[in-house]
Write a structure and sequence with these properties.
- This protein is an alpha+beta fold.
- The chain has nine helices and 14 strands.
- Helix 1 crosses helix 3, helix 2 runs antiparallel to helix 3 and helix 4 packs antiparallel against helix 5.
- Keywords: DNA recombination, DNA-binding, Metal-binding, Methyltransferase, Transferase, Transposition, Zinc.
- It comes from Burkholderia lata (strain ATCC 17760 / DSM 23089 / LMG 22485 / NCIMB 9086 / R18194 / 383).
- InterPro entries: Cas12f1-like_TNB, RNA-guided_DNA_endo/Transpos, Transposase, Transposase_put_HTH.
- GO terms for molecular function: DNA binding; metal ion binding; methyltransferase activity.
Length: 400
């Protein structure tokens, strides 16, 4: 079977290469925004959606025209990829997978992509990579890159340039070494509670850095916008956000790797995190209730990374020959696993579960995990799909 996998490394460019990469990222951002504006104008005029082929002709006009001759300085393939990204954003919007495309802002996820492996070369023994119009560049090659090169994405975040290299290679069909089946109930007090009674404590990376982040954001708000001191303060804020994300990502990778290697089938709840973390502020006409408490709950939910936890479990279990089963979450913490009685009165406190019908007592999170496991067995026994249907890759296609 063929496996797609991405490897991300930090680049070490010189001053000239840094300036060129900023210009290339700016050119791709300009092309994306100009194409999006053209799509909006065309729609308002009653026209149909402009596909990639027609939009690529506009790109040639922009490159050869007198208004934007500097577009010729950037490689053409990353500019074409910007058009494809815009088309993909529209398709996701039409399929109701994402919101309407927005204009890109300078300094937010600046990146550009080389889609053809013939355009770049990777010298692993010397820890260097060759990129068109940039030349050879050193990178922190922290691990080997196996497989055939597919594409390379250069990105800038928190003062550092990185390259994400996607590869494809042939691997043996996975043979599961584990035979156990487990149910997992995710939460806030306990990040993940297993049906065998064990649990994983939460990291709460945002909560640990929240006070420092607030101080840096307050200091940034007092600076004159776009001044040198404001840019320095903004860089400090970005570094804190990067540290929070890296800590959470590392924590999730370690947890999901351990779970996927030790269990053949994992059952989880099919949670809609976006709906669960929706604001309760309401509107002026119909203001919400308990807004501050709900805001704190939303912050704690988003700090856990439940969706990323599920995504990593999905592809890692597939790599190890395992299954991931997502079950409906309704009443998992209110159903007695002993007698099946469902009642809100069974949940006496946040932690304690006591069935009013048969007097069964257990930790509420463990009860939820047991019910999730039982539902997962039913889903697997009925022959229903156990995967969500998303592509099983280490990173989404085109991810940075």
């Amino acid at each position: 079977m063929r496996r797609l996998q991405a490897f991300k490394f930090e680049l070490m460019p010189n001053g000239e290469q840094q300036r060129d990469m900023r210009r290339f990222a700016g050119s791709c951002r300009f092309v994306y925004n100009k194409a999006l504006a053209l799509q909006k104008e065309n729609y308002e005029a009653g026209g149909k959606f402009i596909g990639y082929v027609a939009m690529a002709k506009h790109l040639m006009e922009w490159r050869n025209g007198g208004e934007t001759p500097w577009l010729k300085d950037a490689p053409v393939h990353p500019l074409q990829q910007a058009l494809k990204d815009m088309e993909r954003a529209y398709k996701n919007f039409f399929a109701k997978r994402a919101a309407f495309p927005k204009f890109k802002k300078r300094g937010q996820r600046d990146s550009f992509r080389y889609p053809d492996p013939k355009q770049f070369r990777l010298d692993q023994p010397n820890g260097c990579i060759f990129l068109p119009k940039l030349g050879w560049m050193r990178l922190r090659l922290s691990r080997p890159v196996p497989g055939e090169l597919r594409n390379a994405t250069v990105s800038f975040n928190a003062g550092k340039w990185c390259v994400s290299i996607q590869t494809e290679r042939e691997v043996e069909p996975p043979v599961p070494h584990a035979t156990s089946v487990i149910g997992i109930d995710v939460g806030i007090a306990r990040f993940a509670t297993m049906s065998d009674g064990t649990f994983v404590a939460p990291l709460n990376s945002f909560k640990k850095h929240e006070a420092r982040l607030r101080r840096c954001q307050r200091a940034m708000s007092r600076k004159v916008k776009f001044s040198n001191n404001w840019k320095k303060a903004k860089a400090r804020v970005q570094r804190i956000h990067t540290r929070i994300g890296n800590a959470r990502r590392d924590y999730l990778h370690k947890a999901t790797t351990t779970i996927s290697k030790n269990h053949a089938m994992v059952c989880i709840e099919d949670l809609q995190v976006r709906n669960m973390s929706r604001s309760a502020a309401g509107s002026i006409v119909a203001p919400g209730k308990n807004v501050r408490a709900k805001s704190g709950l939303n912050k704690a939910i988003l700090d856990q990374g439940w969706f990323e936890f599920r995504r990593q479990l999905e592809y890692k279990l597939a790599w190890n020959g395992g299954w991931l089963v997502a079950v409906p979450p309704a009443n998992t913490s209110r159903t007695c696993p002993a007698c099946g009685y469902v009642s809100a009165d069974n949940r006496t406190t946040q932690e304690k579960f006591a069935c009013v019908e048969c007097s069964y007592e257990e930790n509420a999170d463990v009860v939820g995990a047991l019910n999730i496991l039982a539902r997962g067995h039913r889903v697997a026994a009925c022959g229903e799909p156990v995967q969500s249907g998303r592509s099983v890759k280490q990173e989404p296609a085109g991810a940075i």
